[in-house]
Amino acid sequence: MTEISSMVISHAKATVEEMEDAWQGEIEDILSQLSSHELVYECAVLKTCNRLEMYVVSPRGSSVLFHFAKKMGVSSRIVEFYDHEESLYHLLKLSCGLESMIIGEDQILGQIKDLYTISKNAGTMGKILETAFSKAIQVGKRARTETNINRGSVSIASAAVDLADEMLKGLQGRNILVIGTGEMGTLVTRALSHRDMNVVYLANRTYEKAKVLADELGGEAVDFMSLNRYTQQADVIISATSAPHYVLKKATVEKSLKNRNDNLLLIDIASPRDIDPEVESLPGVILRNIDNLRVINERNLQMRMEEAKKVETIIDEEYKMLINQYKRQKADALLSELYSQIYTLRKHEMDRAVNRLGAYHTIGDVECEVLDDLTRAIANKVLAEPTKVLRNAAEYNDEAFLDSACKLFNIKPYAKKEKENCK
């Protein structure tokens, strides 16, 4: 059975700029390009603010992904390629938050669920990837239920708030401006709602969305067109929109510095970035982005080291179960086709026998039932030993034996059938 290969570009090796350059399109675009390759039978893509991951089911997955990365113009220095077992183990760790910048974060599990849905709807996810992602979602839930891996700051958004609190030595009496009320902006606002500060301004291109969030979590919704006025009043600006361009430019920030005594702290957690990097050249401006949140992550890592060990124990246990599940699938796919062939032959020959007997005397329901039971019993007994032998071969990874069985019974390899089904 053709297996999974994956390509991972993440914060572990790539900077914010390199992540932005890796891919500018939508997930659906990547899925379309990958699935159009004749050697890709299934595919799924995960894209977040600090990672881009591609999973393919292909007889030459590593080669396909290597050439795809080359086509994207991505440096080999920031890319990791995983084989089947490495991909599975990585995916389980990812769902539990152990591969995240903020160890134990909850957001990644929701993103994996979204990816699962997008790939299913696009028709690019078949049985092999579905098995992996279903298990990953299950393990991610188990890790958070049975351990405290997600205790404390568990998202980029909450880490951004912690960073602001640390750099300003407290947020009490401060004015905070949050730009963007999408998923990340909402998480920032939730994290701020538990802090003692002066006011939180919420700015969004759609004023109504900002108003709903402000009413729910506290704060003041502001018109995006009046952004300049509120940047002048803010001590901290945290920007988290999904805009494809800078929403906070150097000229706007420069105006906000007039008549200001304190420094202005800007935290950009958007991908692509919201804040023009040139603002850092302005006196009195402190700019931080996702790369700077590594400090928060390192602190969380120390706090959660014991919980991470518990999660790794869960992952090891579930990983073994997943590998065994794939082993069973190798044999079951072959056996399903073999049983189908034998049962089709059984039915054909039984009908032929009934027709021949019917030429001599009337064949009733009782006689047909006896012949049906007889031929079914013969088929099952003939298949009993091959079933045991093939499942045993799958358990011990005897690919050569399974391939020989496919050739002997003229059965197409599993992945080829999946490619046909996906089209």
Automatic annotation (TrEMBL):
It comes from the Archaea. Substrate binds at residues 48-51, 100, 105-107, 111. The gene is hemA. One of its GO terms (biological process) is protoporphyrinogen IX biosynthetic process from glutamate. It comes from Methanohalophilus portucalensis FDF-1. The record marks 90 as: Important for activity. Residues 9-147 form the Glutamyl-tRNA reductase N-terminal domain. Pathway: Porphyrin-containing compound metabolism; protoporphyrin-IX biosynthesis; 5-aminolevulinate from L-glutamyl-tRNA(Glu): step 1/2. The keyword NADP applies. NCBIfam families: hemA. SUPFAM superfamilies: Glutamyl tRNA-reductase catalytic, N-terminal domain, Glutamyl tRNA-reductase dimerization domain, NAD(P)-binding Rossmann-fold domains. The active site is at residue 49. Keywords: NADP, Oxidoreductase, Porphyrin biosynthesis. This is Glutamyl-tRNA reductase. NADP(+) binds at residues 180-185. It catalyses: (S)-4-amino-5-oxopentanoate + tRNA(Glu) + NADP(+) = L-glutamyl-tRNA(Glu) + NADPH + H(+). Catalyzes the NADPH-dependent reduction of glutamyl-tRNA(Glu) to glutamate 1-semialdehyde (GSA). The lineage of its organism: Archaea, Methanobacteriati, Methanobacteriota, Stenosarchaea group, Methanomicrobia. During catalysis, the active site Cys acts as a nucleophile attacking the alpha-carbonyl group of tRNA-bound glutamate with the formation of a thioester intermediate between enzyme and glutamate, and the concomitant release of tRNA(Glu). The thioester intermediate is finally reduced by direct hydride transfer from NADPH, to form the product GSA. Its EC number is 1.2.1.70. One of its GO terms (molecular function) is NADP binding. Possesses an unusual extended V-shaped dimeric structure with each monomer consisting of three distinct domains arranged along a curved 'spinal' alpha-helix. The N-terminal catalytic domain specifically recognizes the glutamate moiety of the substrate. The second domain is the NADPH-binding domain, and the third C-terminal domain is responsible for dimerization.
